[in-house]
Structures are given as C-alpha cells and as structure tokens.
Amino acid sequence: MLPPSLESAITHLTKLPTIGRRSAERLAFYLMRSPKQQVEELAAALVRMRENLRRCSRCHNITEEDPCPICRDDRRDTKVICVVEEALDAIAIESAGHFRGRYHILGGCLSPLKGVTASDLNFDSLHKRIESESVEELILAMNPSVDGEATAVYMSQRFRPRGVRITRIALGLPMGGTLEHADGQTLHRALEGRRDVE
Amino acid sequence: MLPPSLESAITHLTKLPTIGRRSAERLAFYLMRSPKQQVEELAAALVRMRENLRRCSRCHNITEEDPCPICRDDRRDTKVICVVEEALDAIAIESAGHFRGRYHILGGCLSPLKGVTASDLNFDSLHKRIESESVEELILAMNPSVDGEATAVYMSQRFRPRGVRITRIALGLPMGGTLEHADGQTLHRALEGRRDVE
Hints:
- Chain A has 198 residues and is of the alpha/beta class.
- The first copy, chain A, has 2 domains: 4-51, RecR Domain 1 (Helicase, Ruva Protein, domain 3, Orthogonal Bundle); 77-168, Dna Topoisomerase Vi A Subunit, Chain: A, domain 2 (3-Layer(aba) Sandwich), CATH 3.40.1360.10.
- The first copy, chain A, has 8 helices and 6 strands; from the N terminus they run αααββαβαβαβαβα.
- In chain A, helix 1 crosses helix 2 (21-33).
- Chains A and B meet through helix 1, helix 2, helix 3, strand 2 and helix 5 of A and helix 1, helix 2, helix 3, strand 2 and helix 5 of B.
C-alpha cells in the first residue's frame, strides 16, 4: 500500500497521454526527491498555462491575447492564409521562419471514419475571413494523409468559387530522405510535382 | 514563438526524467485542452505529495507519518527485517503480499564505480535496530547485480558477528521464464540453489 498522497499523484499522472502506471510511479518518485520549489514551480506553470491560454477568435491559434500576436502583426501579409489542422502545425511552420502570411487552424480534418464533418471544423470562420480580409490565396497545409487530401478537395470546391487562389503545399521526398526508403505514394507525388531545373 | 505560459510549462516538464522536448509539448497541449479542474487537481496532487511525504526515521521507507504504518503495525514480525535498496523495492515485496516482517531501506548499494561507500547507505541505523529491536534474521533483498552481491557480502561480514541470521533471497529462473533464454549466471544460480522435491 502506497501512502495516499503518493497514490493520488500517480493516479493523476496516469491520466496523461503516453504515461502508464510504471512511468507515473517513476515520475512521482523523481518529484518526491526533487526540491520542493521545483515541484511547486512545475505545478504553478501547468495551472498558469491552462489559465492563460485561449483560442484566437480570428485564426483559432492558441494565444494569451485575443487576437493573437500573428493576427495583430500589421507587417504580415494579410492576403495569404495558411490553413493547418492543429495549432502545433502552425507553430512548426512558424519555427521554420519563412512564411509571412497568417494562419487558420481547422481543428482537424474531415474524416468519415472518425465522424468529423464540415460543421466540426473551422470552415465558416474561414469563409468570413476570406470576405472581410480580402484574402487572395489559401495555402492548404493539412497533413499528406487520406483525410488531409479529402479536406483539401472539399476546401478547393467550397472556396475557389469565392475567387480565391487555392494551393497545396508540395508533397515529395523530405530533405535527407532516400528514394530507396520512400513509399510509392511519396515517389508518385514527387515525380508528379517535378519542376524545371533553373 | 510559443505563448510564454506554454513555453514555461514545456520547460518545466522537460526537467522530468524520460520527458524530452516533444513529449513535453504533447503533454502541455493535452493539458491545455483538458478541463481546468483536471489540471488544477494534477498540480495540487503533485504539491501535496511533495509536501506530505517523508522518510520513516526507523526504516527509511517513504511515508506520510513517522514511524511508517509498517513499523507501527504490532501484528508484524519484529524479528525479521527485509533489507532492500530503494523504497520501490519494499513496495514491490509488500504488493506481493506474503512478507509479514519489517523493512529497512538502504538507499542504494555499495558501488566503487559510482563512488557509493558504506557511509552513504543506511547501515548504521540498521545496526542500531538489530540491537534495539532484538532482530533475529536479516533477509538481504538487494537486486541480483554485481553491486547487490557485493553489498550482501559486506553486510554478512558486518552483521553476522552480532548473532543475527543472514539470508539472501533466492536467485533463479523467474516464473514463466525459459531455460533457453536465461543467462549463464542465472542458470548457475538456479542449479546451485536447487531444492529437494517434496
């Protein structure tokens, strides 16, 4: 029998994704032996994060202020919106550091299997933005998966009639990837998307 | 650039063992989307655990009260002490549910390589217990490793002259184990420790 407060900490830790009973025990034992201040700071950081973060009412990205810093930044190109599935995807593109437009977080992908339909995703707010922000291009940056492709087709059909250019990020071999180990779909897309060498 | 409160939560999570940057991001994103109450309860459970847990002044096990419930339990055999490396080991034996004596947590094993000497471990307090609790048997339940064996030899030499019986837990094949996959040392110990079939 574990002391109740230890058992309680372990129970709460096992609720986290990828943390099983053994991992939770190991984390709890580690924290038990850590300086009190470290445990308090971790706890406070988690509560503060949950408290402070919200969704940007414009692009649905996570933010501490609404609208988010990217939507408020006048130096960014308002005519181009990069559409992604999740906030993590926008963060990944932002870290790459080349994109100067704005984002729109769909909140997932259309997926008949998972029961995700158009009304579950942030299409209506994108529709409004296209009209109110005089958007000229939508870059579809959903993941290259069956659902991602289906969502791209849906969006193309829905938004192209609004007079906006619809593009899809390139699908092909990743930097450092090898033809030998690439799957057939990727090779097919890489060939299809070939460009003239300058 | 991540919102500061998210970045701070991730930084604190990466300080935990086995949690890298990617895992920390995933945990933080999960918590961000969890009900506020769940995050607050997790944070409170961690702080409460660190606050409440201490070492038993008698056996060095982790406990909320000193002495620990096992040391205070009069129905347990005071004449037998099971010596283990860490509190987790005592918990494992306790969960197995057969041992009715008491424990002594060494806090590790003698290890010249890691610089752990006798003065780093809880030998002196064990020495005192042997005298004050009229202990008759010490069961050495350190892990079957080079350091564990060396510690067993050291303890045997140190405590046998006190007139106490010194035993070592059996080393052999685990339940469900196969001879085919057992290592040579284990097979050697299993043969050496053979017993007459009743």
